[in-house]
Amino acid sequence: MLEKTPIAIQKILKDDVKTAVFTSLELINAKQLMRDNMTVLLKPNLLQPAPPERAITTHPMIVRAVIQWVRQFNPTKIYVCDSSGGFNFGESNTERAMKESGLKAVCEEEGDLVECLPFEKTERRIYKVENPLEVEEFPSSVLLHDVDLIINLPKIKTHGQTTMTCCIKNMFGTILRTNKARTHAKYPSLNRFTSALTDIYSVSKPQLAVVDGYYCMEGNGPSAGKPVKLDIVLAGYDGVAIDSTVCKIIGVNSGNVKYLAFAEKKGLGTTNQDEIEIRGESIDNIKRKFKIPATIKPVSAWLPRAFADYLARRVFKATITFDNDKCRLCSTCWSNCPVNAISPPKEIKKGNVPIWDMKKCITCYCCAELCPYSAVDARIHLVRNVIFSWFGLMLFGALIVIAAAIVIPILLT
Ligand code: SF4
Ligand code: SF4
């Protein structure tokens, strides 16, 4: 009989994160991966500099608990690494994110063995992708190759482009800083970008994942949504199986999370619930429906691909707007848009907002992800888009033909 892939789900009771993490790792017998003198890489989600209460980054208590679990097995080194999006001069966004998220403090408190290190400060190596869907090779940190064990520490969030983010999307953080924007520009459609995500995951595939479901995010994630205290931890070996299980927990149709199908096709894991064994809490006991982002296109999963792509590009294309109360004209959005679809206002003064070019925009949502003040709003204005698209014109034409076909015979009788 086929051996099922185990996923442990544990409730976090009275904020006792450590017990939940340790129990979940015990439930899947994760100690089988460990031996003395290992170097271990922990990969949290450090999307942007933000404090834990905003639920954008992996919670420091989850990271601390995993560090303490790993320490039991006498490692020689524990690295806590990521590369945040965006570009700025001086201190990098990753360094700021490590401080503001509380992860740097946790690493310092856990002793010399633990190092909080931006990927961009490590040596580079070129990684080749086997059987690539889009990305043939990419540069990243040498640590992905050199460490003995990679533990993925993603956070459960909804996502404006990919519907949700957890294990697979978290490893996009191994792409260094501005290369992320280049990847968006090079693979502008959702199909191509999620194929690229899958290629990147196939190279950096972690052996173990501990998922932060302590504070999650719903709505306009991954950075401008609402925090949700779900109070759970998941642990497992198969990131594809974990992501599809998280979809069930948060009420998202996994068919709409395109990278899951690509990852399964590439042999990176399973979405088949018959091949997954849930240990600990049942999904029914902890599930909670999350609000999905206002940008998610409801049709792309079931229409023919060419027509779905057309609708995604024109009819369901999101409009980017800027909140002039929240915007501080910090330049993050226009400095980091991969296709220069945002420019600064003519005058940098309070009340003015950046200028968005709809024709250039590839709806990658980097601007919404990176805005430090949640001042970017992305949503689909369906009626307006229909009116101003070929689809709308054809619909309008068809209505006129139908109306004529009904009215003319009546007039002629
Ligand atoms: S929208 Fe956000 S990122 Fe862009 S300039 Fe304003 S505050 Fe900065
Ligand atoms: S305007 Fe925003 S969503 Fe559009 S391409 Fe630029 S960063 Fe991406």
What does this structure look like?
The chain is globular, with a radius of gyration of 23 Å. The strands form 4 sheets. Strands 1, 2, 3, 4, 7, 8, 9, 10, 11 and 12 form a 10-stranded mixed beta sheet that branches. Strands 5-6 form a two-stranded antiparallel sheet. Helices cover 35% and strands 21% of the residues. It has 16 helices and 16 strands. The protein is α/β, with parallel strands linked by helices and 413 residues long. The structure holds iron/sulfur cluster (2 copies). One iron/sulfur cluster (SF4) binds next to helix 13.
Name a few traits of the molecule.
single chain, 413 residues, alpha/beta, Rossmann fold, Alpha-Beta Plaits, 16 helices, 35% helix, binds iron/sulfur cluster
Please write out the topology.
Layout: E1 5-11, H1 17-27, E2 39-44, H2 60-71, E3 77-82, H3 93-100, H4 103-109, E4 114-118, E5 124-128, E6 137-141, H5 143-146, E7 149-153, E8 155-159, E9 163-165, H6 167-170, H7 179-186, H8 190-204, E10 208-218, E11 226-236, H9 239-250, H10 258-265, E12 276-280, H11 283-286, H12 305-315, E13 318-322, H13 332-336, E14 342-343, E15 355-356, H14 366-370, E16 376-380, H15 382-387, H16 390-412
Parallel strand pairs: 1-12, 2-3, 2-7, 3-4, 7-10, 8-10
Antiparallel strand pairs: 1-11, 5-6, 8-9, 10-11, 13-16, 14-15
Helix pairs in contact: 1-2, 8-10
Bound molecules: iron/sulfur cluster (SF4) (2 copies).
One iron/sulfur cluster binds at residues 320, 337-339, 341-342, 356, 361-367.
